[in-house]
Design goal:
By secondary structure, the chain is mainly alpha-helical. The chain is built from 14 helices and no strands. The protein has one domain. The radius of gyration is 21 Å and the shape is globular.
Length: about 325
């Protein structure tokens, strides 16, 4: 990691801490700490157990997607690789967008596959996760609307999430629709740009980028022509989202509060939209988004909501950071089959 990357990480970490500090001040630090100290240890452990089930499920999803690219990983290795990928997402700005290149490099190193294929694998997992998440948002909000009035804040959150997802899907669709044009024109444009610098050979850069883009789109086509694996991957994705929703419900129980499961169904994927912020893995932004969503929709005091969210994030953010950091370090220095 060079100085620029370290500086970016430090700045992002400082910003995340600042957001969390503001959240604590607004909610009341003493009350949040009191709720955390009174949390039921058994239910906190259950929250972490459900978070571990989510991590295992999505590692199996990654293994399934990589299988369609003829990249074979054992179950244990797939878990360690995916934990390392989550670690990369959680310590780089913009969540998945920042961590995917690191995760792809890790997959490539461990499996001996091409980097482009590894990037297609981890990117496909992130894209496929959108389908169940949007379905859960619509299902959860729809059910919630039958039992309570949908507030303006929730309406705005759903609208922003749907608009953001629609924009991402549109961009992906356009790139795929005009992939041949992209392969033909983008490498030459980049080659001409970097060729202005003496240290780069424009022809070699153009050829290299063109080859990688062709391999990238060919691998995407291979994933799309495996309907059985795609269905299995989407099913595992849905299961993982359900484990996270269950973890949130149990986290609330741990601090002596309760929320309707329907609220957890839409709150988890909606809050993760804040992961698109330039904070390490959305740290701070996601916690604030959870509090903003859950206080008006559950009627639970803000201090208890914040405490429950911190317990939940301990399982789905900090535990993968610890496990993934170790696995990324180990897998990064030797090849595991």
């Amino acid at each position: 990691m060079d100085w620029g990357q370290r500086r970016g990480l430090l700045v992002g970490g400082a910003a995340a801490l600042a957001v969390l500090a503001v959240l604590f001040v607004v909610v009341g630090t003493d009350r949040v700490v009191e709720s955390l100290l009174s949390a039921d240890p058994a239910l906190v452990a259950a929250t972490f157990g459900l978070a571990l089930c989510w991590l295992v499920t999505w590692s199996l999803m990654l293994r399934t997607v990589l299988g369609s690219l003829d990249i074979s990983l054992g179950v244990t290795t797939a878990f360690l690789v995916y934990a390392g990928a989550v670690f990369a997402n959680n310590v780089t700005p913009f969540g998945q967008a920042g961590g995917e290149p690191v995760a792809a490099a890790l997959i490539s190193r461990v499996s001996g596959s091409r980097y482009e294929s590894s990037l297609v694998g981890i990117a496909s997992v992130d894209v496929l996760n959108v389908v169940p998440s949007l379905s859960l948002v619509l299902l959860g909000v729809g059910y919630y609307a039958t039992t309570a009035a949908v507030g303006e804040r929730l309406e705005v959150a759903v609208t922003v999430a749907v608009a953001l997802i629609a924009a991402i899907v549109t961009v992906i669709g356009l790139v795929w629709r005009f992939r041949r044009t992209v392969v033909e024109r983008l490498p030459a444009a980049v080659g001409r740009l970097v060729g202005r610098f003496d240290r780069f050979d424009a022809e070699r850069v153009t050829e290299g980028i063109g080859r990688r883009l062709r391999n990238f789109f060919e691998d995407i086509e291979r994933v799309g022509t495996s309907p059985g694996r795609l269905a299995a991957a989407v099913g595992l994705s849905l299961t993982g989202w359900l484990f996270q929703s269950a973890a949130l419900v149990v986290a609330f129980a741990a601090v002596g509060a309760s929320i309707p499961p329907a609220v957890a169904l839409f709150a988890v994927p909606l809050a993760y939209v804040a992961g698109a912020t330039p904070l390490p893995g959305g740290l701070g932004g996601i916690e604030a988004a959870f509090v903003a969503l859950l206080v008006p929709t559950t009627g639970v005091p803000a201090s208890a909501v914040t405490a429950a969210v911190l317990v939940f994030r301990g399982g789905v953010y900090w535990m993968p950071v610890a496990v993934g950091g170790v696995s990324a370090s180990v897998l990064g220095v030797r090849t595991v089959r």
